[in-house]
Amino acid sequence: MVISDKEKNTGYLQADEENKKENVIGAINDIVTDLEDFEESDEKDDTIDDIGMDEEVPCMSITFGGLVYTSPITGATYKWHKIGDVEYLSVKELISMNNSKPVFLNRPWIILQDIRAVNKFRLMSKYEEVAKVNQLKKLFATGDTKLIEATIESALKSGMREVIISKVRTMYNNGVLNNTHIIRLLEDKLRFEIVSE
Known about the structure:
By secondary structure, this protein is mainly alpha-helical. It has helices at about 5-40, 45, 90-100, 105, 115-120, 125-135, 135-140, 145-155, 160-175, 180-190; strands at about 55-60, 65-70, 75-80, 85-90, 110.
């Protein structure tokens, strides 16, 4: 059997995309772990504002597809071309973003990769929700419908419907999600048809 260059490239691209998704999931889980450790420490109140206004914070996209932010103050444009891309924004720019386009931080479309910035913008609970959504495969494997329902409802309250739909659809198309009870539950909660005939 001869494999064409196009098929090889497609395989490499798919593997590369999977690696990037795994890196994104790993980064989110690392952030949540760091936040949990930080929350347990006694230094929390002393260091919450421990980041300077001019310090740059790495901001990683967790949005499928491209993402563009133009600062209303400086006019600077920041572009994330795909999930996992990182742009560096100053704390001043992040404050401006939070005031003018809060969905970037609160939906979240981007993840701040500096624990001090995460605490400054009080994003820990959001990031915990993101981490839960990124563990859907393990959650579905448990078959615990009450836990699945509670997790989905919590994520929906955090405005993560599109992220969940994208992940669930990918899991269904790849054959990872095939439990009809879970699929019906998800379709009901998400109000979205996963199985299209």
